[in-house]
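can u do me a favor
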């Protein structure tokens, strides 16, 4: 039986990845600071541990795993990473995790290690035009990310590539572009745009309004979780040594995203634009390289993922309201 280690297995992508690997017949160990929030983990072995501590990493990597997936990071949506209030923690925490996990894997002769980077590492000056953002993999340099989160991702990419060159490790790097789907963070400040807008639409009465940060004309692409997992696993098991985009090429404005969610919810709402953290003006995945290297690239329309995500968030709200009403009645 093949074995896999998933770091960040209590998070959104990590918990889905554990399920996918179990379906493939892997024995899976999951690591995180918390258990998955929206269901029981399917990992064979799940440890609560702080990967910023080297000793914890040495104890977790206690064998030679066939595949290691390093997804653990200090991260969140625009309301978390673009305010500037969490920069030191984001850089310190994520860098320490990557340094520790790579060293532990090297010392156990673990060869195949996947790292989840981010499109946030692309230069800000290439993403000023919302209609023509540049995110080809070879456009990463000269470097100029728009956030410290992006700078840390860029540093860690180079760290993984250095371990490949110097120690013969088979490191693989994906630059994720806005992954979304059920069982992801949908409230509390760390949620990303699709989940935040699904929540706002679900909370609003038909004919009401929802708030949008900025003018809503900033552009993004959003990739459904199942396609993210497919790209991740294909890349990990490939011979591709350079960083590769894993994202959708279907670019929409945030206003258009809100309209799509309203259509899924069958609601007509007014958009009220307010100040808020925005990130770059435009971003979209460039998928020529992944198509060439893997013979595959994401293709599911955005609306299909929203049709699966919105009902799940709507149910979370209903459950929350139900639990609140019960507690009020008890008081």
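np, heres the sequence
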């Amino acid at each position: 039986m093949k074995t896999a280690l998933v770091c960040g297995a209590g998070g959104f992508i990590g918990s889905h990845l554990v399920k996918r690997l179990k379906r493939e017949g892997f024995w899976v160990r999951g690591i995180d600071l918390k258990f998955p929030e929206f269901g029981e983990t399917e990992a064979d072995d799940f440890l609560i541990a702080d990967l910023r501590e080297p000793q914890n990493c040495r104890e977790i990597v206690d064998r030679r795993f066939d595949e290691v997936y390093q997804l653990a990071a200090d991260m969140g949506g625009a309301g978390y990473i673009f305010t500037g209030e969490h920069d030191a923690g984001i850089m310190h925490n994520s860098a320490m995790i990557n340094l520790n996990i790579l060293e532990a894997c090297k010392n156990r002769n673990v060869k195949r290690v996947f790292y989840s980077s981010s499109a946030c590492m692309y230069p800000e000056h290439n993403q000023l035009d919302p209609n023509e953002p540049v995110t080809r993999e070879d456009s990463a340099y000269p470097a100029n990310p728009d956030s410290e989160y992006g700078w840390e991702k860029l540093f860690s990419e180079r760290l993984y590539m250095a371990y490949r060159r110097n120690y013969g490790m088979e490191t693989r790097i994906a630059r994720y572009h806005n992954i979304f789907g059920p069982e992801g963070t949908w409230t509390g400040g760390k949620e990303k745009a699709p989940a935040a807008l699904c929540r706002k639409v679900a909370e609003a009465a038909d004919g009401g309004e929802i708030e949008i940060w900025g003018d809503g004309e900033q552009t993004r692409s959003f990739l459904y979780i199942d396609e993210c997992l497919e790209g991740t696993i294909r890349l990990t098991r490939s011979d591709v040594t350079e960083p590769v985009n894993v994202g959708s090429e279907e670019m929409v404005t945030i206003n258009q995203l809100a309209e799509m969610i309203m259509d899924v919810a069958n609601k007509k709402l007014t958009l009220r634009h307010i100040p808020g953290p925005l990130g770059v003006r435009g971003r979209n995945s460039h998928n020529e390289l992944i198509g060439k290297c893997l013979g595959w690239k994401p293709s599911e329309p955005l609306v299909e993922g929203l049709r699966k995500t919105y009902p799940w968030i709507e149910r979370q709200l209903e459950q929350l309201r139900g639990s609140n009403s019960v507690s009020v009645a008890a008081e």
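The longest helix spans residues 302-330. hope that helps!!
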